[in-house]
Design goal:
6 domains; transmembrane helix; eight-stranded mixed beta barrel; seven-stranded mixed beta sheet; EAL_dom; Rev_trsase/Diguanyl_cyclase; 42% helix
């Protein structure tokens, strides 16, 4: 390519890049709010929730406040306040809002708190880094220590509980600020310091995680208006972005279970023993790992990762590069190495070589490569390089009917496919991004199949495996993920020569000046256009021309404030199954339908109503009370004519209207919004109902739900949740063989609350995870008690909520909990309902297989009532089927039901699955089940769910 052509290409690129940047600036999607309210937000110098840099404010609190501003239109002014004065400043109106206030903090009596918490914070006991008298979870060494506490006493209660639990005596010393606490610790006035994980504690070491508490947004008692706006925004975030706050917390503070740990005494001794950790490294998988031919050094992604781990952990590595990485497992087993640089987790390899795995430090995708004429089928041959340890096994699991062929390296794998010795090969994506990609294999291509994402970990063996694993895991979890990602990018980016910008600028100065002037003129013109439409775009929905949700609320509030005594009707409407319009007819057709609906709203109600489009197919109408309201709504629901690719078509929308009627404007407008939405959702999925009004029953339901949500943490702390047991009987001997653990809530005011009321609420807001683990631990305590009393062992089944399926550390937490009590895992049965199994098939299968491999029994509840039952029998490693009670209720009257139950029992017996029938209430039902060979029964004929004491009496009978 001639130099002149290179110059032109650079000038064109420069022009396009500049124009694109200007366009992004001009047409940005940021909201503009007319007359935006400026909120003064207080923060302290050493707080980590809001951090001040030279030109910006960052941190968890800033990001959370930006989300709130999407619903309130607020703008923020951040004000630094001395820590000891922050509550007084809020009360006196110096600031409007604090983001991190505990309800039990001294001086909060005159403040208003948000309904939702702003964050969690963990209390950490910290010592000086060079203090060798105490280490993490070293409770004996903590005894008798002087501990610095904040005089606000917001964390003192958790320290008191912690000291009782671990039998620690201590002397509290109170200081007004975090800075004074640090000075006291540094100067030796105290031995330890209790601080929040939201403080900057990088100069100290953690010796204990004391407890966890909620923090809330707080405003002055005089600013109820701010509290109403704040609570409305938090409710919207909870409904529409339920996992976003958790994600923000993890991004800013890390996962507390992983990050908030310290060095144990065993780890300290290992780190200071002078032992070099021998790391076997893959030297035959460029760019993961290879030997530089010029320097002889070990290089690549693994080499850079090991440097990060060595620096962060304090370990010293001795690298052992080998070409055949398949031998690494044998080296660990034979004591020739202590750790591998990277490996895909494989249970078979772990068992064979006696190794364990660290946490994952990166994920690498593997793509399927084949010839352009490749047609994969069950008999396909897949070539996998021998250094891809575990990937050969993974390929066999994903493609069980294919033949997996081992190749010497990546190059040989590609050649085998090119020469038709194999049909395809699995290659990691980092190789495909280097200069050594598929350019030399013009007959090959990446096949259009899903990539396989593989977590990469360190395999660890030898007598020091557990302590080494703890050290490596802490390093992995405290190194920012972008540092690991940089190890990849720096090893796959190809640097090639490009002409110098300086020389280009000097030679073509006149052309560059001309381009800059042209771009400047365009920039000024676009600014003028943008300014002209700025306010319009900020308050209107660009698709329908109606007001957007924020503008609708603002105008509605103003209208109601000027007419507080008039009767109004607020209508929330959306279209059932509208998402299928996008998929079936296309986005353009869907947009056309929404435009026509927006136009129809204005035509039907005229100028005497307010309209808004919230999002997607959700609209709002506010109108004075009309006797013909339902007639008008039916007009809106009539078929819509729209144009699709030049052809006029008809669409019949299935509207759902939720109506909130109010005579006086005596609540926050956000409350009326919630009422209308609740009325609409009450008929969602009911084809027979189109219109629903918010009524007293819904109000009572809302009140009860809010009461339950506000009380659930307190109820768990106060011991209001108790475990009941319903025995399971062997039908042949009619003796107790096990029990199902069920949770009951003894509310001091309401009495016994039905699980059907509180369980759905807990599943929706995620509290079910915390409650389930409470139940699990109570069951384990009882089983240990029974074992110590010499009772015969039984199997206890425990329910597993759908929320656990997508939780990465559920199985690890459960096994650690079970093992800590010494209860054999095979005496615990994890019970899943068929409705829980209706999620992603591969996720469910992987979850159940992992639980089974861990040694737990698996049972399927309500069998026959939900998801495809025969698929369950075929694919899942199930121990017990619990036949749905509805079948049993009909057996005495329906021959068909009797035949179905009998066939299920016989089929389960043939594939070695035990059967249990629920809801047995009559002797006739029990005799029938015994006759057809059912193994177990459970129901009121034998016993209702009973407290532990009554259940123990049944065991003795």
């Amino acid at each position: 390519m001639e130099k002149k052509e290179i110059i032109k290409r650079y000038l064109y690129r420069f022009l396009l890049f500049f124009l694109f940047g200007i366009t992004v600036i001009i047409s940005g999607t940021e909201h503009s709010y007319a007359d935006a309210q400026v909120i003064r937000v207080g923060f302290t110098q050493d707080g980590q929730m809001i951090r001040q840099t030279e030109d910006a404010y960052t941190g968890y609190g800033v990001e959370y406040l930006d989300m709130i501003a999407d619903y309130t239109g607020w703008q923020y002014e951040y004000v630094m306040i001395p820590e000891e004065d922050r509550l007084k400043a809020l009360e006196d109106g110096v600031i409007d809002l604090l983001c991190d206030v505990s309800k039990d903090e001294t001086g909060t009596g005159h403040l208003l708190f948000s309904e939702e918490r702003s964050s969690l914070y963990y209390g950490l006991l910290c010592a000086k880094k060079d203090d060798t008298s105490v280490f993490f979870d070293d409770y004996e060494a903590m005894n008798g220590k002087r501990i610095a506490l904040n005089s606000s006493r917001s964390m003192e209660s958790m320290l008191m509980d912690f000291s009782v639990d671990h039998q620690i005596n201590y002397t509290p010393v109170y200081y007004p600020t975090f800075l004074s606490m640090k000075e006291a610790l540094d100067q030796g006035e105290v031995d330890l310091m209790l601080a929040s994980n939201q403080r900057n504690l990088t100069d100290y070491k953690y010796v204990a995680k004391v407890g966890v508490k909620n923090q809330f947004f707080a405003v002055s008692q005089k600013r109820e208006d701010l509290k109403e706006q704040l609570d409305y925004a938090l409710r919207q975030i909870t409904v529409r972005q339920p996992f976003m706050t958790g994600k923000l917390y993890e991004e800013n503070y890390g996962r507390p279970s992983k990050v908030l740990t310290g060095v144990t005494r065993e780890e300290y001794e290992f780190l200071h023993s002078g032992i070099k950790v021998r790391v076997v490294c893959d030297a035959g998988s460029y760019p993961l790992g290879y030997i530089d031919e010029e320097t002889g050094e070990y290089c690549g992604i693994y080499a850079d990762v090991l440097k990060l781990l060595e620096e962060k952990s304090g370990l010293e590595f001795e690298l052992l590069p080998i070409k055949n990485y398949g031998e690494s497992g044998e080296m660990l087993r034979d004591g020739k190495a202590d750790m591998t640089a990277g490996m895909y987790i494989n249970d078979a390899l772990a068992k064979e070589y006696g190794i364990t795995y660290s946490d994952s430090y990166m994920t690498i995708d593997y793509a399927m490569i084949g010839r352009r004429d490749t047609r994969l089928n069950a008999a396909s041959r897949i070539a996998v390089p021998q250094n891809y340890i575990g990937i050969q096994v993974l390929a066999g699991e994903i493609y069980p009917e294919s033949e997996v062929i081992s190749a010497k390296d990546v190059t040989e794998s590609l050649k085998m496919v090119q020469h038709k010795e194999a049909d395809s090969t699995l290659i990691n994506s980092v190789f495909l991004q280097t200069a050594y990609n598929l350019n030399d294999y013009d007959t090959l291509m990446i096949l259009p199949m899903n990539e396989v994402s593989v977590p990469i970990r360190c395999a660890i063996g030898g007598e020091n495996a557990e302590v080494l694993k703890q050290i490596i895991n802490r390093a992995i979890n405290t190194i920012p993920s972008e540092n690991f990602e940089r190890c990849i990018t720096e090893n796959v980016i190809n640097i090639s020569y490009q002409p110098s910008l300086k020389s280009l600028f000097k030679q073509y100065f006149p052309y560059i000046i001309g381009i800059i002037l042209l771009i400047g003129s365009i920039f000024v013109a676009l600014l003028l256009i943008r300014e002209r439409h700025y306010k319009h775009l900020a308050m209107t929905d660009s698709l329908t021309g109606l007001w957007n949700g924020i503008k609708f609320r603002k105008e509605a509030e103003q209208l109601l404030q000027h007419n507080p005594k008039k009767e109004y009707q607020l209508i929330s409407l959306d279209i059932e199954h509208f998402k299928y319009v996008n998929s079936d007819l296309g986005e353009a057709a869907a947009d056309g339908i929404l435009k026509m609906i927006g136009k129809r709203l204005c035509e039907v109600f005229g100028s005497n109503a307010l309209y808004g489009r919230e999002m997607a197919d959700m609209f709002w109408i506010l109108t004075e009370k009309r006797e013909d309201l339902e007639k008008l709504l039916h007009k809106i629901a009539e078929p819509v004519m729209f144009e699709n690719n030049g052809v006029e078509q008809m669409y019949k929308p299935l509207f759902k209207f939720g109506i909130c009627m109010f005579k006086e404007y005596d609540l926050a407008f956000g409350d009326y919004i919630d009422m209308a939405i609740m009325a609409r959702k009450a008929i969602k999925g009911d084809p027979a109902k189109v219109i629903e009004y918010y009524d007293d029953e819904m109000a009572e339901m809302t009140s009860n739900e809010r009461r339950i949500e506000k009380r659930m943490d307190e109820a768990l702390k106060n011991g209001e949740f108790v475990v009941y047991y319903q025995p399971k009987y062997q039908l042949r001997s009619e003796t107790i063989s096990g029990a199902e653990a069920l949770v009951r809530w003894r509310d001091p005011e309401k009495g016994l609350v039905s699980p059907g009321i509180f369980i759905p609420i807990f599943e929706r807001d995620g509290f079910i995870i915390q409650l389930d683990f409470f139940v699990y631990e109570e069951v384990l305590k009882d089983m240990v008690k029974w074992q110590n009393e010499g009772r015969r062992p039984i199997i206890v089944s425990m329910n597993v909520s759908r929320a656990h399926i997508g939780t990465a550390d559920f199985l690890q937490k459960l096994t650690e909990l079970v093992d800590s009590y010494g209860v054999p895992r095979n005496r615990l049965e994890l019970e899943l309902t068929e409705t829980v199994l209706g999620g992603k098939r591969q996720d469910i299968l992987s979850f159940i297989v992992s639980c089974k491999r861990a040694g737990f029994q698996i049972s399927i509840d309500d069998f026959g009532s939900g998801y495809s039952s025969l698929n369950l029998l075929k694919e899942l490693p199930v121990d017990v089927l619990k036949i749905d009670r509805e079948f049993l209720n009909e057996t005495e009257e329906s021959e068909k039901s009797s035949i179905i139950v009998k066939q299920v029992v016989e089929m389960a017996a043939k594939i070695n699955i035990e059967t249990l029938c629920e809801g047995v209430e009559t002797r006739g039902q029990a005799d029938f089940l015994k006759q057809i060979g059912c193994d177990m029964a459970q129901g009121f004929l034998y016993s209702r769910p009973v407290p532990r004491e009554e259940f123990e009496g049944l065991l003795e009978a």
